[in-house]
Design a protein that fits this description.
heterodimer, A: alpha/beta, 6 helices, 12 strands, globular, B: alpha/beta, eleven-stranded mixed beta sheet, three-stranded mixed beta sheet, 4 helices, 14% helix
């Protein structure tokens, strides 16, 4: 029987992440965000990291530690993301201050391009062309090519050293299921990474317990699993909605 | 800031939503565009696509009934309609990039009469927030823009050329402000409908580029 990929603690799961590593962090608007792995990396203290994430978030503004906490803890050299500033001018992200002061470098990427660059890395494709950002400041000085009637921008794959993801169910081999909008970037980052670490919401089940037709990410892309316990960080409260 | 005239934000969103056709796949941006999903479309059925891979979401979840795993692009807790599907982020943007979105409704800081618009970076900032806007704007069949007609300082947001970095060029098909409904026409905006209680001269004075106004200009219908 194959050895289980479950590790005992979040600290154990992130212990070997070296300074200078590239870490991708899944999640979209808190859903599917591996808060416990982020928290463990804050405690572990690795520095000069490059972080790939859709949005760095507000630190612990919603009562949970997101990538903003790695920003304010001085662990990041660079962020590759689709937001260096919030969509509302009244909200100031920790990253915005650090980026504007030149303390952290940032590469701002359209969200679909970010997803596809990760997908390409996981699929063995070095680069691709996309129509997004053509004619904008982001495309200035970069290679474009015309196919048919349209102009496209060259984008490169985004390989990852460590991926932090959140899944709903897992078996001991690392086959994963996500629930609803939790899926988002998580399967892409798992495939793009050399080492994928998943925090798992439900009890990790024996290999073979998940119907193969219901596996969203194969265990061949997953290396470590950590079980969420009752005292773990689950989710921030839902956003207040103006009705 | 002068007293606000014309359409409310919900009325602005309603006017755009009334352009949605039966069966359209619709992507709503964060902020004002979200209000389009409140509009009663009668027998017209559309499919709401959220960039985070939720295809076929419905109304906002009732307080206390939120599912912690289900949000729209704005992070709001929503519900699913029958026939909904969940895909990953790459597949969600494959829907967008392959031209399957019939319309995206996006907020903006500026819209230009040549069809350019700007919504990701404010003047003087080093960075900004792009999210999915550049992918959507470059690839949706229609790009509707919803914005206030002027800035808080009274400067026009409907302009000849954007004064801040564009999100995409030449893509905007329809614009609504509190003063009316507009279509980019190259060197001018066509005023298609004007808000009740607003005069054409007021619209001209508030607009930063030429305006084509038909002699028999229609009012925006209040439903």
């Amino acid at each position: 029987m194959r050895k289980s990929k479950a590790v005992a603690s979040f600290a154990d799961a992130v212990r070997d992440i070296p300074d200078g590593a590239t870490v991708a962090v899944g999640g979209f608007s808190a859903v599917g965000t591996p808060f416990n792995l982020i928290n463990a990396l804050v405690a572990q203290g690795a520095k000069n990291l490059t972080c790939i994430v859709n949005a760095t978030g507000g630190g612990d503004a919603r009562g949970v530690p997101d990538v903003g906490k790695l920003v304010t803890n001085g662990q990041l050299k660079k962020v590759i993301c689709s937001f260096t500033a919030a969509t509302r001018a009244s909200v100031v992200l920790p990253l915005t201050k650090y980026y504007e002061a030149g303390l952290i470098d940032a590469e701002l990427v359209p969200q679909g391009t970010l997803a596809e660059r990760l997908r390409a890395a996981g699929a063995g494709i070095p680069a691709f062309y996309t129509p997004a950002a053509v004619g904008t400041e982001l495309a200035a000085g970069r290679e474009t090519r015309r196919f048919g009637e349209r102009e496209y921008l060259l984008e490169h794959a985004l390989p990852v050293d460590f991926a932090f993801i959140r899944a709903h169910r897992a078996d001991t081999f690392g086959n994963l299921q996500f629930r609803l909008a939790q899926r988002n970037f998580n399967p892409l980052m798992a495939m793009a990474a050399k080492v994928t670490i998943a925090e798992v919401e439900e009890e990790i089940v024996p290999m073979g317990s998940i119907d193969p037709d219901q596996v969203h990410t194969s265990g061949i892309f997953v290396h470590r699993l950590v079980q969420l316990t009752a005292d773990a960080i689950w989710q921030p409260k839902p956003l207040e909605v103006a009705r | 800031m002068s007293e606000r005239k014309g359409l409310t934000r919900q009325q602005m969103a309603d006017r755009l939503a009334r352009e949605f056709k039966d069966g359209w796949i619709v992507n709503l941006g964060v902020g004002m565009p979200t209000l389009c999903s409140n509009t009663d479309l009668g027998d017209t059925e559309v499919i709401y696509h959220a960039e985070n891979g939720v295809i076929g979401y419905g109304p906002l979840a009732e307080p206390g009934k939120e599912d912690p795993h289900l949000v729209n692009a704005g992070g709001q807790s929503v519900t699913l309609r029958p026939g909904a599907a969940i895909v990953n982020h790459a597949d969600s943007f494959a829907v967008i990039r392959s031209g399957r979105i019939d319309v995206t409704v996006l907020g903006a800081y500026e819209a230009a009469c040549n069809g350019d618009f700007a919504n990701w970076k404010v003047k003087g900032a080093k960075g900004g927030g792009i999210g999915g806007a550049m992918d959507l704007a470059a690839c949706a069949k229609n790009v509707f823009v919803i914005l206030e007609h002027r800035t808080r300082d009274g400067a026009p947001r409907l302009v000849e050329r954007c004064s801040i970095p564009e999100t995409a060029r030449g893509v905007v098909t329809l614009v609504v402000t509190e003063l009316g409904l507009f279509r980019p026409a190259g060197k001018a905006f066509d005023l298609i409908e004007i808000a009740p209680g607003v005069g054409v001269d007021e619209v001209r004075a508030a607009t930063g580029c030429p305006l084509n106004v038909p002699a028999d200009i229609k009012r925006v219908a209040m439903v």
